[in-house]
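call fold(seq) -> tokens
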Amino acid sequence: MLRDQFKKSGSTGQEGRLFSRKPQVPDGMFSKCSACGALVYEEDARNACYCCPKCGKHFRIEPYTRIRMVTDRGSFQEWDAGLAGEDPLQFPGYAEKVEKLQDSTGLCEAVVTGQAKIAGMKTAIGAMSPDFLMGSMGTAVGEKITRMIERATRERLPVILFCCSGGARMQEGIFSLMQMAKTSQALKRHDEAGLLYVSVLTDPTTGGVTASFAMLGDVILAEPGAMIGFAGARVIKQTIGGRLPEGFQSAEFLQKHGFVDRIVPREKMRKTLAVILKSSIRSASGDMEARAEKPCFEKDETPAPLASCTEEGGTERSSETDTAQKTAWDRVLAARDKDRPYSADYIAKLFDGFMELHGDRLFGDDRAVTGGIAAIGGRYVTVIGQQKGRNMKENKRRNFGMMSPEGYRKSLRLMKQAEKFGRPVILFVDTPGAFCGVEAEERGQGEAIARNLFELAGLKVPVLSVVIGEGGSGGALALAMANEVWMLENAMYSVLSPEGFAAILWKDGKRAKEAAEVMKLTAADLKEAGIIEKIIPEKTPADKEDMDELAGLLRAEIKAFLSQYDRKTPEEITDERYGRFRRMGKPFG
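ret:
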């Protein structure tokens, strides 16, 4: 009968077959899903991309089937098909077990590698087998993956690797451990060549595989519900002697904690990989241009603007309608207005698609900032925006737009990724300031902001920053060290809030209105002082319900900015950014 993988996956080495041994009953019979307990027919599971049609559980599948599902028909060419390992420790029974698995799976080892095309784009691709000693990494697995990476480096190909492993292969001892180093150093050279590596974490990805090539992707994707971790849950529980968090070591748990860019259902994997591949392609000359002749985002990739405020809260709206007569304090109120468009609103209006990427790869995924890959005017860019919420629940989730260290580290990771693949960076600034809680200090808030400034100084792609609301202190500057900084007419940008300024200098926070005038924080003030390059006019204070004209103007200006910087070399881009900030402030002596 169909094997309970649906509790325990299998493979035959034959493309399209799900299970490792011949079924004991005719095809089309059923088994029980290990997640929901439903009876699932094999044909139904196959039609659902080998997922449970009832609950969506992603069943384990063999490598040829996995490769077939994401690549162009007939494009896969296998590499090193006959490569098999040795028995370095002469471990009793090991050779016989490997031989038996080779017969039952049709595989020489626990990974299949080769080249293929995805949406017409050539890539090296590998997939690990859950049925060959649970995808454990022995010398042959390490060698095949290393050879794939080395060949991809020589032929200047991206690499996509579907990881599925129980970890290092115990029967090969220290020789298995060395494969972690071997594969990692191959990936380092591939990275230094400026090439893309995407790792896809499937169920399970554990042990030495997690601690090497699985977690080194430029982009790390995961299938829903996949178990991912270094040490097994049982070992951890025995060590710490306590209960583990709910959902511990799931893909969702890792994304929340900053280690997975995106969780992708199997039916969307091919489309997602196509976008990532396309957005990493430089022009033939290797310049800063990353064209998207026909952006291939899913329709639902661009986030919908946040819902209207349904709870009490927010800042009072200025009653002044004549923008030319607004005081500095009026501008402050307009910048803080609860109905003012936020980053998600601009992303939805300005770009042809947006694929959000998550996490800082160190601690967490700060929801006060959103970032990822987008398309505008037929090209790919990296977009990052500070994001507030429109109601109390959403503001708690977004921390009122105040970024923590992991938010700055996430934004920096995405900007460095943009530099590697030649994508310009578009930043939206809207924050009262960096988060100043105890936990932020413990995790290095000052260092995180400083590191952004340090790395942005040398970023070799054009950077544009647009202050769309509040631009508060160093929390804003960390996303505004750009080649050009623009402000919406009713935005503000200052060393700190007017209330804080008044409290520090005059010991009286109630003098905030007076402080706003003194601080020169409006777009007009800052344009006159040479702090910003452009003011984006607002006929009326920007409103999320009526922003089409404003978005159209901003889109045209961004496209012109990108066109202008197409003509500049990386050295010119960094030199201009350096000179921009070098000139600021009155000359000395």
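Residues 1-26, 283-290, 307-322 have pLDDT under 50 and may be disordered.
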